[in-house]
Write a structure and sequence with these properties.
It is a single chain. By secondary structure, the chain is an alpha/beta fold. Helices cover 43% and strands 18% of the residues. The two termini are 17 Å apart. The relative contact order is 0.15.
């Protein structure tokens, strides 16, 4: 019965979809009276501060630019210097609207008293995905406890890796001698024996370690998942599928994961920057399905837009979008809808060119079904 209902709905509303697509293609963002080209282009540009060239953040920001760039929305993907600096940049650097940071940096900033009233000044748009802690060591180091009194690279000061590594070693009671080399140089120093290990927090698989040649005398160390560690972090694993040159087939290395968060300044509702970020959120959330398909980064497939981040407050426009679109993507009704669309002729799928089109069709279907139910009463 449900499939029959959806079949009728598709026939009724595909015309509406075609009309909406035609209108969208013909619509061009008209300049406001007295608005200069400089003002117009800046009004539609969103700066996203991300991470270093070897990390996942910059690839996520690049995906945002590749998918969302249009006549009235442009994404500037900017390399950053780590989570702590990204928080500073969101607060104070001109042209930065959004930043990608680790979820534990918020507690770190508050504990340090680095920024007054940080709870009211920073919000989040969505939790992105989990990033894994990679602890790479030479073969002479068998366990994490063997790093006591040894040189361990924990990344550039203020980076997400620096924050997480500092908290983890302090929690485990392992006193290391920290170094702060960039990650590529740190790997070379581990190879030469100049330092014992290097820590890198990044979404697996990261190219920095995936590109290490087979037979190189390096391996990943396990991180003990103690109750205190699990108070802050999630359990995770590095597998042979992630790093076939470093992990034997059929085995895995226990480690921890920390969430990546899309953070934003809490602009007042009447501020132009508030409106600009709200437009970005509408475009991003409406087309989210496009990020979960190749060739986008595989980490997108771990993202749930509705996931919450403990200790953080969601930015009001993002909260409103999720509340208004709560039915889309949830429940047996949506699952049946998707299964049905998969069985339709290619011309149906070709006319649903984006996730926004699918959402529009689904919303119209729900409205039609409600009218049908009322007629039967």
């Amino acid at each position: 019965m449900l499939r029959t209902t959806i079949r009728v709905c598709v026939a009724l509303v595909l015309g509406a979809i075609s009309a909406a697509q035609a209108a969208a293609q013909s619509a061009q963002p008209a300049p406001q009276p007295g608005e200069t080209y400089r003002e117009r282009i800046n009004k539609g540009t969103v700066g996203i501060i991300s991470g270093g060239i070897n990390g996942t953040y910059i690839r996520i920001a690049a995906d945002l630019a590749n998918v969302l760039d249009s006549d009235d929305l442009r994404i500037l993907a900017i390399m950053g210097k780590g989570s702590l600096q990204n928080i500073d940049d969101i607060l104070y650097l001109r042209g930065i609207d959004i930043g990608i940071v680790q979820s534990d940096v918020f507690a770190f900033v508050k504990r340090q008293g680095r920024h007054p009233n940080i709870d009211r000044r920073i919000r989040y748009i969505t939790k992105l995905y989990n990033e894994e802690l990679h602890l790479l060591a030479g073969r002479s180091i068998a366990r994490i406890e063997d790093l006591a009194g040894r040189k361990v690279n924990i990344g550039v000061r203020g980076s997400g890796t620096f924050i997480t590594a500092t908290l983890v070693f302090e929690t485990l009671g392992i006193a290391i001698i920290p170094t702060s080399f960039d990650q590529a140089l740190a790997v070379e120093k581990v190879k030469s024996g100049e330092i014992a290990a290097t820590v890198y927090v990044s979404g697996k698989p990261t190219a920095l370690f995936k590109d290490i040649a087979a037979g190189t005398p390096l391996h990943f160390l396990e991180v003990p998942l103690t109750p205190k560690i699990l108070d802050t972090y999630l359990p995770s694993r590095l597998t042979a599928e992630d790093y076939p040159n470093l992990i034997p087939a059929g085995t895995a290395v226990r480690t921890l994961a920390v969430g990546a968060v899309m953070a934003v300044y809490n602009w007042p509702q009447d501020h132009p920057r508030h409106a600009k970020v709200a437009r970005f959120i509408e475009a991003f959330f409406s087309r989210f399905g496009e990020f979960q398909k190749p060739p986008r980064h595989p980490k997108w497939r771990e993202v749930s837009l509705s996931a919450t981040v403990p200790g953080w407050t969601r930015f009001a426009p993002a909260e409103a979008w999720l509340r208004n679109n709560a039915m889309f993507g949830d429940g047996a009704m949506r699952q049946a809808f998707e299964e049905f669309l998969a069985t339709q002729a290619p011309d149906v799928a070709s006319r649903l060119q984006s996730e926004e089109d699918r959402r529009m069709l689904f919303d119209l279907f729900l409205m039609w079904q409600a009218r049908q139910a009322q007629a039967l009463q």
